[in-house]
Amino acid sequence: MTVTDIKAKLMQGNQACAEGAIYAGINFYAGYPITPSTEIAEVLAERMPEEGGKFIQMEDEIASMAAIVGASLTGAKTMTATSGPGFSLKQENFGYGIVAETPCVVVNVQRLGPSTGGPTAPAQGDMMQARWGTHGDHPVIALCPSTVQECFDLTVKAFNLAEEFRTPVLLLLDEVIGHMRERVFVPQPGELEVVDRIKPEAGTQNYLAYQPVDSTLVPPMASFGDGYRFHVTGLLHDETGFPTNNSEVMGSLIERLHQKIERGREKIVIVEEIDIDDADVVIIAYGCVARSAQKAQKMARKKGQKVGILRLITVWPFPEEEVLRVAEKAKALIVPEMNRGQIKDVVQSAVVGKAEVYGIGNVDGEMVSPCQILAKIEEVL
Amino acid sequence: MTVTDIKAKLMQGNQACAEGAIYAGINFYAGYPITPSTEIAEVLAERMPEEGGKFIQMEDEIASMAAIVGASLTGAKTMTATSGPGFSLKQENFGYGIVAETPCVVVNVQRLGPSTGGPTAPAQGDMMQARWGTHGDHPVIALCPSTVQECFDLTVKAFNLAEEFRTPVLLLLDEVIGHMRERVFVPQPGELEVVDRIKPEAGTQNYLAYQPVDSTLVPPMASFGDGYRFHVTGLLHDETGFPTNNSEVMGSLIERLHQKIERGREKIVIVEEIDIDDADVVIIAYGCVARSAQKAQKMARKKGQKVGILRLITVWPFPEEEVLRVAEKAKALIVPEMNRGQIKDVVQSAVVGKAEVYGIGNVDGEMVSPCQILAKIEEVL
Amino acid sequence: MDKEWEIRLGGTGGQGLITGGIILAEAAILDGKVAVQSQSYGPESRGGSSKAEVIISNDEIDYMKVKDADLLLVMSPEAAKKYKDEVKEDAIIIVDTTYVKDFEATKGKVYEVKISHLARHEAGRELVANIVALAVIVGVTNVVSRSALEQAVLSRIPKGTEELNKKAMAVGFKAIEEVLNAA
Amino acid sequence: MDKEWEIRLGGTGGQGLITGGIILAEAAILDGKVAVQSQSYGPESRGGSSKAEVIISNDEIDYMKVKDADLLLVMSPEAAKKYKDEVKEDAIIIVDTTYVKDFEATKGKVYEVKISHLARHEAGRELVANIVALAVIVGVTNVVSRSALEQAVLSRIPKGTEELNKKAMAVGFKAIEEVLNAA
Amino acid sequence: MSMNAVKEQLEPVVVNLAWCKGCGICYSLCPTKVLSSNELGKSIVSEPNKCTRCKICENHCPDYAITVMGVKK
Amino acid sequence: MSMNAVKEQLEPVVVNLAWCKGCGICYSLCPTKVLSSNELGKSIVSEPNKCTRCKICENHCPDYAITVMGVKK
Amino acid sequence: MLAHLEKYFRTERLPHIWCPGCANGIIVKSLVEAIDKAGLDQDKTVIVSGIGCSSRAPGYLNFNTLHTTHGRAIAFATGVKLANPELNVIVVTGDGDGTSIGGNHLIHGARRNIDLTVLLFNNSIYGMTGGQYSPMSPQGAKATTSPYGNIERPFDICNLVTASGASYVARGNSYHTSQLTNLIYQGLQNKGFSFIEAISTCPVYFGRKNKLGRPADMLKMQKEFCISKEAAEKMSAEEKAGKVITGVLHYAELPEYTEQYQKIVDKCQRR
Amino acid sequence: MLAHLEKYFRTERLPHIWCPGCANGIIVKSLVEAIDKAGLDQDKTVIVSGIGCSSRAPGYLNFNTLHTTHGRAIAFATGVKLANPELNVIVVTGDGDGTSIGGNHLIHGARRNIDLTVLLFNNSIYGMTGGQYSPMSPQGAKATTSPYGNIERPFDICNLVTASGASYVARGNSYHTSQLTNLIYQGLQNKGFSFIEAISTCPVYFGRKNKLGRPADMLKMQKEFCISKEAAEKMSAEEKAGKVITGVLHYAELPEYTEQYQKIVDKCQRR
Ligand SMILES: Cc1ncc(C[n+]2csc(CCOP(=O)(O)OP(=O)(O)O)c2C)c(N)n1
Ligand SMILES: Cc1ncc(C[n+]2csc(CCOP(=O)(O)OP(=O)(O)O)c2C)c(N)n1
Ligand code: SF4
Ligand code: SF4
Ligand code: SF4
Ligand code: SF4
Ligand code: SF4
Ligand code: SF4
Ligand SMILES: [Mg+2]
Ligand SMILES: [Mg+2]
């Protein structure tokens, strides 16, 4: 298929996210308005009933997160969208979604924090919160689009991963990507993979809602109403779904939750490598800042500087191997981001001293500019 | 003063925390019951009115966190206590407390998560959440007692740091420490330092609520009712307290919030070093697990193994220098904890490859035992 | 046109500049170009100043923010003050003299048009000042084709306002022609 | 006594074993010793089994959990089953035969006393079974002094129940003496 | 009289001791004192013939430990 | 007639144009059409002598941009 | 009970965790009898709860069961119901779970008149966490966090839910079991937000702290202080003093949320 | 106005951020006049708000002012008031802030009858985020998230707050300014939880979406559809149809929370 077959549309990042959800087959959206995510809800309020789906504005973010988990248990593909303050409020029920293993997609269009912060100012300040915001040990999947096209495509991907791994998946946008408009080639039906709920095989007897049946460690998931009458709880439970105080069983549930994601790494972890092979300096970037990195990298190459880019499309689970591989070749890594070095520290930990790691951290609501990155390249070369 | 002058009392960790708060001069407590923190509220419900203070059980944890920040603005010393699920709910208003620079103490008696998890099973699974649970870039102070005596003493310390640095301070207990009983020597009035609210100098004209007056970068804090009529907001603001969209001002506020803690490092960061000097292996531990470490270390020394302990009493800001110093001397570091290596990863990042770092991570509600640590020592020696 | 255009539209909320930017980007896409549109808001959604940025290019666009503009439109005194220096040396600057009085450029070539006034009095409603402005922009720069502009405008506006908007475009084109001819 | 005592008290919620553990620890402190008491709960706070652990020592106590107990008290069949093997070779095991029938020890020396029955019928209320048990424990082990025990009991109980509790202690001391004498 | 009917008269009320927690509700509420408690406080049927099948015991046993046979007399 | 009184009669209503946002409330609600709008939609006092000092304008200006002098006639 | 027991309970999980004499078990029996009377398809019925002693009920019931987070049961249930309106959705909650931390979801569920049947176990205390006062504890009541007696005033929760917009509101208690069964049954029949407050007991915490005697005594007290709406109508003000009125307290025919939503879908899809 | 302006406003921060014609400014004026009438000491008065357009009001007022998080103003205010009962505490909130995310704190504040005066700006929409429907949007109303018309039923919030236990409940509007001033004034006088719903306008979002004309038209509509309780009493049911009743809707003398708490302190300290 060539580009001309497809109609390019000018879309806003938030809108592309909403349309991606529709493409992925969303059945249920619950949300609470908050800048700069609100357009996602607004588009879906209009589009969902057209597609036979359900949109509800709940009384707050806590309820929104609860509603999408509840809806997911009926077999629906579900999503909610928010920004920092709402993301903080969703944390308890987000953790519930992880323990109860309910697929759903949670979008955080990041704005400048902490607290009410700068509601219309862009930031990438919730990267570590995405990983650690809810209490207790838990794994997290989080994707980070850098273009409006990716807002569409990665939303589809997020729904797929949610279904495949029976877990909530995070989409971490930032205000810049969420609000900018650029062209999107909307794929035809069938063009992008769409994963549907992995249900117990027809005729399954003695279905155990939390017992994996294969090496993926992901238990097939029946829906409420299918006739299996299973129990779901946020207490640590055995494979029947009923709570237990047995420490071995509790520990192995937490372990399995982590292992199912570990085993799926290949499917989950996506990075883009640009001119890595001969690079002395590699910029590790994600989200809107990856765009500045791209511009800076091209300018640097023009000047003859050997600069490459490792773009993190999946941020969690962290692409440790990919980063380590790059660190083993390059002299220096530069991590520009719109926070005080959250991912930089993770890179630091991943490279165990194998390369020097430099950060650029804007916390003033201004995008990291190509100039800032170029200056840092000069500094470290 | 000798030990016999003071009456030793058998106290529960949670009770010692409550009594420490009274010693520190708490005026206001708001909370919502949750296992295993509830005794803190129960003791204070009885004790506060005796001391002329106020206790209120709010409708939830969000409201509790809000109430202690509100009360703090009237000049009160305030506290709340909770466990994982409630700690998740407090995150939004905890961030507000940081931005609005309101002193208060937040206790999390950790239980096994994620989600409802194992309500009566101990854990140390919220260490990273304590650091990153609220959205946006922010600094955090968190203390971690290992004895009931420390529950008392560090609560006093937490109140002091809150006042000195105008910020919420976290006390991270675990179910073991919170519920165990041992003897506490209750200090006499005056024996422990008690820091009171640092107010603007009498007669201050044109008081600016968010303008530091000295190199501490901590602005003196008037109380509502003192006559200054200042404005408090969770929006990023200038030194008057009023919101701004100016990126320089926004950025410098976030920077100052971090710097005031950085500059106070010496007062804030406390560690205990045991037999470090000649140690080949150093155990880095905190909370209840430090007790297992102590037992294991003594047993190892008896066997002639050169083992030391670095006990983290302050966990956030992370004692990077202290850890690095140890890493430069020891061959191996062992980080036993009741989570999947949360602090181990931070240690890893801090030592930049200078020493091998090994973790022991229990997520089954069982305390890390001295045997587990001894086995690991054998393994790494 | 072959060069990459970095365009900044500045004014106050309610002047429809963001819609203006969107239409411009959409027109560029209709012309087969690559376009990116971004913006900035006041607190949450209201009040204060408003800014839309558009980059139009033949190639993929990496960085979506405009630094020094090739084309600047200012429709409020605040915007004029704020943005007039963030332009390239040879920039084109279009000033709505309804609101911006005594504009003094340090760089670039200035075109003065009473855009909002014309929208109100010639096109019929000040609401379409942004459309008048787009026509003025296209009149000076040909950054997008006139047909793409018309198509983009008609696809973004509320049903029933087609005539009003067509008129606004005509008013804009006419006004800029007069300015160009006068120059 | 000079050795370090690791003590485990096991039964069901409502038997007052945690209070029992606290009293034991408090008595040890009154004796000038170091003591640590810990426990485990069922779901949130109710139901199921209950366990209290106490360590009493002359030195600082690092690890607060009991691994293999020097002294085990069991007051329910579940507790008996669960804990009977987690004792030292020379442990002392006290069994409340009101509830624990046919106790078969693999290690340690067993003392069988109908503790709850005695509490109900001799002391007057089953509620004080824990106090009877404490007296039995002290009768066998002298892990704390009798006077410290009495003082600790009296400081932890509700006002007005002093006589009941004193009686319970007496019943316990008497019962264990009989057992010891019989042996 | 069928076997069932005989059984019902001899054993109008059945207590499942495995589930009974000895709360005392049934034997406190039973209007005719059919029920009483054993030494562990659990419910026992001590005067079966007095039973009126009123089902107050069954209805109020929180542990589903009591079944009353037959219908109200 | 004092100077103030004279001033009050000539200028019964004062509009602070710096604060006026041109919402139109005052000139839409003024019962005697004292007020009208300038080309930016802001409020101007076009017929001062018709003013009854009813203060409807002042009471409903959301921007505290209007002050009515003197008291109701 | 036996027939229902096998059919509706997960008997292998019994006995339940509730303390001896806790009335929760009695109320659950009424719930099951009401479900039986209403003839609900077990496969198409979902029982949702929050956190608390009472919220453990779904685990013992042989339906699709969902034990959520503290206070959020109605929000989860809203997702279940709206996503699949064919399911019968029942919410089990406690006075703390439903009116303290969960109060907002309760009033918003009622406002939307979404077709849920909410059964609130009111034992006037937080049982699960060991006896703290709740927004339904009476003034003066002793609890671990009100050692000097509770100074807060309790909600009249039926009144509040009515004012929030629910279409069916009723109150029953654990002594008058057949009335309670009937009240729940009517709630299940109502297409809309149905709320039933069931007065329960917590002999272990509320009972002990407030010296209310044994479990049976607490039930006997209920028998005394609960009077039906019908009986109350015939009583004088003095006679009614200190009494709690039970029965159907509010009923109104109102548009139901998921039906209203379906109309939008139909309209959109017809276009 | 001028006298009050200098005294009570932070004039250096004016003009405010509200859109042209937004009635919020009118309501704030009534608030200030009521404060003036009540003679509150500015130094001893705290104004607390949540997040929303209306919640920006405190920033313009020359008191101790506290702009908190979305929905939580009453919870923060509860801390302020209980910690220092000498302070007069006023809460400013919006229909979204106060009844949606903040609904629980509202009903619990009312239940406790804690001495706060809560002024709720009801513009039937989320203004700050650009026009989504709120729990107070009328049925059928258009909003960005109800493009097909709102299917949810709005709260009668005065009714709800009354049912929650507040001691003073009133409703006013931005057209009848002196009535509103008086209603707020009475709320300030009441020692207990006082709630005043002030019907406001959002010409930019609610007005435009629902074709309600210019700001002045929206005020004129208020003049028409708001009738005082006194006037309503003389009207027939048909005459009252579609009208909204204003005035003091509920008043009861009830024990106030901080006073009750003080009694405990006194009792404890006397011992
Ligand atoms: C977010 C959160 N906060 C607090 C708790 C602790 N908690 C568990 S149950 C409960 C109260 C239960 O009271 P109620 O709803 O009345 O139920 P009951 O136990 O009385 O039946 C509380 C506070 C929790 N699990 N989660
Ligand atoms: C936790 C959180 N959720 C959502 C928001 C976004 N938000 C800001 S104001 C607002 C609604 C305001 O509506 P209302 O209270 O009616 O005030 P108005 O703007 O209409 O005066 C929302 C949803 C937020 N700031 N914080
Ligand atoms: S009511 Fe039930 S649980 Fe209670 S004593 Fe009787 S049979 Fe046993
Ligand atoms: S059925 Fe009635 S009479 Fe028979 S045992 Fe039960 S309560 Fe007593
Ligand atoms: S009401 Fe006020 S803001 Fe509106 S036009 Fe009149 S003076 Fe201007
Ligand atoms: S005071 Fe009355 S008459 Fe005079 S300008 Fe104002 S509204 Fe018109
Ligand atoms: S604690 Fe109270 S409510 Fe909970 S099970 Fe026990 S008696 Fe019932
Ligand atoms: S958006 Fe609406 S409520 Fe907000 S300031 Fe503008 S008109 Fe007022
Ligand atoms: Mg309860
Ligand atoms: Mg509003």
TrEMBL record, chains A, B:
Keywords carried by this UniProt record: Oxidoreductase
SUPFAM superfamilies recorded: Thiamin diphosphate-binding fold (THDP-binding), TK C-terminal domain-like
Protein name: 2-oxoacid:acceptor oxidoreductase subunit alpha
UniProt GO molecular function: oxidoreductase activity
Native source species: Heliorestis acidaminivorans
UniProt cross-references to InterPro entries, sorted A to Z: 2-oxoacid_oxidoreductase, PFOR_II, Pyrv_Fd/Flavodoxin_OxRdtase_N, THDP-binding, Transketo_C/PFOR_II
NCBIfam families named among the record's database cross-references: PRK08659.1
Coiled coil ranges: none
From TrEMBL, chains C, D:
PANTHER family per the UniProt record, alphabetical: 2-OXOGLUTARATE SYNTHASE SUBUNIT KORC
UniProt superkingdom: Bacteria
Record keyword Ribosomal protein present: no
Source species of the chain: Heliorestis acidaminivorans
RNA-binding as UniProt keyword: no
Protein's name according to its UniProt entry: 2-oxoacid:ferredoxin oxidoreductase subunit gamma
InterPro entries in the cross-refs: 2-oxoglutarate_synth_KorC, PorC_KorC, Pyrv/ketoisovalerate_OxRed_cat, Pyrv_flavodox_OxRed_cen
GO molecular function, one term: oxidoreductase activity, acting on the aldehyde or oxo group of donors, iron-sulfur protein as acceptor
Alphabetical UniProt keywords: Oxidoreductase
Pyruvate/ketoisovalerate oxidoreductase catalytic domain: residues covered: 13-173
Record-annotated membrane-spanning stretches: none
Pfam families from the UniProt entry: POR
Automatic annotation (TrEMBL), chains G, H:
Gene Ontology molecular function, alphabetical: oxidoreductase activity, acting on the aldehyde or oxo group of donors, iron-sulfur protein as acceptor; thiamine pyrophosphate binding
Domain of life: Bacteria
CDD domains membership: TPP_OGFOR (cd03375)
Pfam families documented for this protein: TPP_enzyme_C
Swiss-Prot/TrEMBL keywords: Oxidoreductase
InterPro entries: 2-oxoacid:Fd_oxidoreductase, THDP-binding, TPP_enzyme_TPP-bd
GO biological process: cellular respiration
Domain Thiamine pyrophosphate enzyme TPP-binding: from-to ranges: 51-197
PANTHER family: 2-OXOGLUTARATE OXIDOREDUCTASE SUBUNIT KORB-RELATED (PTHR48084), 2-OXOGLUTARATE SYNTHASE SUBUNIT KORB (PTHR48084:SF1)
Annotated protein name in UniProt: 2-oxoacid:ferredoxin oxidoreductase subunit beta
Native organism: Heliorestis acidaminivorans
